[in-house]
UniProtKB/TrEMBL annotation:
It holds the Pfam family DUF1687. PANTHER family: REDOX PROTEIN FMP46, MITOCHONDRIAL-RELATED (PTHR28071). Residues 42-78 are annotated as: Disordered. The keyword Metal-binding does not apply. It is found in: Mitochondrion. Putative mitochondrial redox protein which could be involved in the reduction of small toxic molecules. This is Thioredoxin-like protein. Keywords: Mitochondrion, Oxidoreductase, Transit peptide. Residues 58-67 have a biased composition (Basic and acidic residues). It comes from Neodothiora populina. Belongs to the FMP46 family. Residues 42-52 have a biased composition (Low complexity). It comes from the Eukaryota. The lineage of its organism: Eukaryota, Fungi, Dikarya, Ascomycota, Pezizomycotina.
Length: 149
């Protein structure tokens, strides 16, 4: 309860949400996801600037929240993987780590061979959401302001 209140306080203070892209620079899908995220971040920033110059009503109507894009080319940590699986659901583990069906198996596989971690994976840590792959509509849905924001 206290954590939620603090989280909302920081959001109200203008702290941007961090969106992490686990990226593979040689993957066309990952490049598409990165391009979409960069464009969306730039558009959100431009919209926020316009809104700040106008009434507060416009601010509450913006579709996308500002976010800081964190691009990671390295493998996620065990804790990050655990969170990603929690956000995606157990049925998506195999879509993120090749040949894995449980979180512990996936973590073990990634530690042994990071190439088994399939990129891109986009994670909204602050709102507990993730997308595996470059599906544009899923990525844009992840970036929309949550209902309780």
């Amino acid at each position: 309860m206290v954590f939620g209140a603090l989280k909302n306080l920081f959001k109200e203070a203008g702290v941007k949400n961090v969106i992490t892209l686990f990226h593979a620079p040689k993957s066309p899908a990952s490049i598409r996801a990165q391009t979409l995220l960069k464009q969306t971040a730039a558009n959100a920033q431009a919209t926020a600037t316009e809104d700040q110059a106008s009434s507060h009503d416009a601010q509450s109507k913006t579709e996308r929240s500002e976010f800081e894009l964190d691009v990671q080319e390295g493998d996620p940590t065990s804790d990050q993987l655990t969170n990603i699986f929690e956000y995606l659901g157990a049925d998506k583990i195999g879509s993120v780590v090749e040949g894995a069906s449980t979180p512990s198996e996936a973590i073990r596989k990634v530690k042994a061979n990071g190439d088994l971690f399939k990129r891109p994976v986009i994670v909204d840590w602050g709102n507990g959401r993730a997308v595996a792959g470059d599906n544009e509509s899923e990525i844009l849905a992840l970036l929309k302001k949550p209902n309780n924001a």
